[in-house]
Amino acid sequence: MLIVATAASSARNFSVAAFSIVRSRNSPAVSRFFSTSNDRKLKIRPTFIQRSSSSTLSMSTESGDDESYDYDYLVIGAGSGGIASARRAASYGAKVAVVEKGRLGGTCVNVGCVPKKVMWNAASIAETLHDMKHYGFSGYDSDAISFDWGFIKENRDKYIVRLNGIYERNMANSGVHSILGTASFSEGAKGVVVKPDDGSDPVTYKAKNVLIATGGYPTLPDGEGIREHAISSDGFFELEELPGKAVVVGAGYIAVELAGVLQALGTDTSLVVRKGKAMREFDDMIADTLDDEMQRQGINIYRNTNGVKKIELDSDGLKIVTLNNGEVIGGVDTVLIATGRSPLVEPLNLPDAGIKQRDGGYVVTDEYSATNVDGVFALGDVCGNVELTPMAIAAGRRLADRLFGGPEWKDAKVSYDNVPTVVFSHPPVGTIGLTEAQAIEKYGEGNVKIYKSKFSNLYYGPWQVEADDKPKTAMKLVCAGKDELVVGLHVIGMGADEMLQGFGIAMKMGATKADFDACVAIHPTASEEFVTMFPWGLSNQVTGAKHSPLNGAPSPEPSI
Questions:
Q1: Where are the beta strands (DSSP E) in 186-281?
Q2: Which positions are catalytic?
Q3: Which residue from 70, 74, 227, 425 has the least number of CB within 10 angstroms?
Q4: Are the C-beta atoms of residues 96 and 10 closer than 8 Å to each other?
Q5: How far apart are CA 214 and CA 83, in angstroms?
Q6: CA-CA distance, 463 to 145, in Å (whole number)?
Q7: Strand 300-302 relative to strand 308-313: parallel, antiparallel, unpaired?
Q8: Minimal CA–CA distance to 167: which of 116, 115, 103, 212?
Q9: Comparing C-alpha atoms, which of 427, 433, 436, 432 is closest to residue 492?
Q10: What is the pTM of this model?
Q11: Torsion sign over Cα 271, 276, 277, 281
């Protein structure tokens, strides 16, 4: 969720969103943002798009309990969480405004989940084309099939601009005021000072409740030539051409996702990890299987490097990457650093406002998204607790329910437990709950039972190759206690991303292994493996459900 961009210091990387290439102004959703004498091609930086003045409201005064307020609810940051909270608050009749300098939708819409998934889709199509010979199709090795990076980038960027417009219209239709500018707290959090985009004098707004939903941004490590010659994950979406050779630095989900996209689309890709493997925070089964699959796909993995020491240019303008362990990678077109993110708090003047922060700058909140300052709240990536867009959306809506929804919502909050997470690597990863190691640490080894399976998806059945050469799907159920409550679920393989949501519902409702076994499998699918894991049907017959599904019980009926 991007807001307020200030001049970047040498120690920070405030990467901005991708440049859009717009070749047609005929679409109303696009033309409202642009005017140019060149109808064929216009390069703009969407971060600084000026939205229509009709959505920018001047101050007004409304009587509060003891003092005057301009708004009941002032949200700083128009990312997914901030907008969701603002619109929900407005639905209760609250007077709401959102302060934003960047494009609406924040990181997820502009330089995160959405454009990343578009590129993941492109990479998946490339993989399918590569596989088509195993199903009797020919022509892959001919000139009949080609990939145009510029084409998908242009259409991806147009799609993002359309989404920006949808967010704007949704806010306007909900009655949420839009304030363009850079926000910061006044001393003692007495108000929010907004420096307008047009260079006019700052304006101070007072609100009964203020939400900090400013999100985060990618950071670059120190090192000779790193800031000059590397890009962040934001910069990936600015690339005008598919790199011939790329080095991706990082061991988290962003690094493996972008490395997988580049490799599948034809880039000679290397992944540099600080320790032994990527995705170390995930279950070992996930990390090890993904490691094997990335190598099978041809990604070069540099291990135990302790990161990048320096980046230089050779005589041809290509990059030479020197790692801290002494290894050198030469002839590189693009170096992409995905080693971490930080909360976007620098412009907010939080120390003077008395708002507590913890290590890394993250805003400290309680279970109700409240900071230590009365009337000031925070959620999403700026808090560093489950940094996922749907989590921020849910937290934002529940906060608005509690503040404005009446007595029945006075205790409304979200749970940060058992949050389903998907990594769009190649192959994709899905995970919910505890890893095997975490479960053993929490419950004791004798109270944890593991069910797991590893197989090749039926998709690879007709392939006339050795079994070990076929991509693998791996699954694991982590169960705890005598009732074998499912406390962790992990999957990597084809279709993992689309099968996870339903299992997430089951785990949130307290499903046991017996509950999983009580659900008849859908055949032939990969997901059926989760409800047929050996030994099937022999677990302690205890259900976590309000209405037991065990032993052929009838389906529940609604209360009429």
A1: 192-196, 203-205, 207-212, 216-218, 245-249, 268-272
A2: 523
A3: 227
A4: no
A5: 11
A6: 22
A7: unpaired
A8: 103
A9: 427
A10: 0.85
A11: negative
Closest CA to 302 of 284, 333, 275, 266: 275
Within 10 angstroms of residue 361's Cβ, the number of other Cβ atoms is: 16
In sequence order, the β-bridge partners of residue 474 are 454, 492
Q: Could you please report the per-residue DSSP string of 338-368?
A: -S-EEES-GGG-HHHHT--B-GGGPBP--TT
User: How does pLDDT run across 217-266, given as a tens digit for each residue?
Assistant: 999 999 999 999 999 999 999 999 999 999 999 999 999 999 999 999 99
Q: How many helices (H) and strands (E) does the chain have?
A: 14, 25
Rounded CA separation 409/378 (Å): 18
The DSSP code sequence of 408-433 is GGTT-----SS--EEE--SS-EEEEE
Residues 185 and 193 sit within 8 Å (Cβ to Cβ): yes
DSSP state of 282: S
CA–centroid distance for 44 within its chain: 25
User: Lowest mean pLDDT: which of 62-71, 81-90, 113-122, 367-376?
Assistant: 62-71
SS3 217: strand
User: Over the Cα atoms of the chain, what is R_g?
Assistant: 25
Closest among 241, 200, 237 to 47, alpha carbons compared: 237
State the Cα–Cα distance between residues 386 and 392, nearest whole angstrom: 8
Q: Token pair for residue 362?
A: 């993250």
CB 253 within 8 A of CB 338: no
SS3 letters for 458-500?
HHHCCCCCCHHHCCCEEEEEEEECCCCEEEEEEEECCCHHHHH
pLDDT of residue 54 exceeding 50, the answer is: no
Contact 422, 429 (CB under 8 A): yes
Backbone φ and ψ for 501, nearest 5 degrees, come out as -60, -45
Per-residue pLDDT tens digits for 378-422:
999 999 999 999 999 999 999 999 999 999 999 999 999 999 999
